[in-house]
Specification:
Elements: H1 3-19, E1 26-31, E2 34-40, H2 43-46, H3 53-65, E3 73-79, H4 83-91, E4 96-101, E5 126-128, H5 133-163
Parallel strand pairs: 3-4, 4-5
Antiparallel strand pairs: 1-2, 1-3
Helix pairs in contact: 1-5
The structure holds zinc ion.
The site of zinc ion has 6 residues, from helix 4.
Organism: Gracilibacillus oryzae
Active site: 54
Protein name: tRNA-specific adenosine deaminase
């Protein structure tokens, strides 16, 4: 499978998050052309700061490989990694990262910072960006749009209740 096909599966993971009311971000880890782990953002359900898709998928892959080192692996994620996840990617020694949409507010794989390609660190990763960017971004845009509409609706209902 190619990067685009793997990213489609990461998008499918992201959709599972959206169904649960989680911000739709999905991730996969591929080792020797095989998906060894997949995950999606679960921050609301777990109420833990570290439950981003990348952190969860790294944990799972560590378990499968039986090592904290994820050499020869590629991490696919629908949204550009934040500083925490980029840090974990370095710590796990992941050599290749492919992401979909850019994150203008937290992206640390080229947008705000590029933690994955700073030669002051002891590890650098190859970064491929913009794979299925539109699809991955659209998922987030429509999720937040829907969320705003729900909030607005709730506010209107509350106002109505107050009037009665
Ligand atoms: Zn993150």
């Amino acid at each position: 499978m190619n990067d685009q096909e793997y990213m489609q599966i990461a998008i499918d993971e992201a959709q599972k998050a959206a169904v649960l009311g989680e911000v739709p971000i999905g991730a996969l880890i591929v080792y020797k052309d095989e998906i060894i782990a997949s995950a999606f953002n679960l921050r609301e359900k777990l109420q833990t700061t570290g439950s981003h898709a990348e952190m969860l998928v790294i944990d799972k892959a560590n378990e499968v490989i039986g090592s904290w080192r994820l050499e020869e692996c590629t991490l696919y994620v629908t949204l550009e990694p934040c500083p925490m996840c980029a840090g974990a990617i370095l710590q796990a020694r992941i050599p290749r990262v492919v992401y979909g949409a850019k994150d203008q507010k937290a992206g640390c794989a080229g947008t705000l910072l590029n933690l994955l390609q700073d030669d002051r660190f002891n590890h650098q990763a190859e970064v491929v960006s913009g794979i299925m960017e539109e699809e991955a971004g659209e998922l987030l845009t429509s999720f937040f749009k829907e969320l705003r509409q729900k909030k607005k609706k709730r506010t209107i209902e509350m106002d109505d209740n107050n009037k009665q």
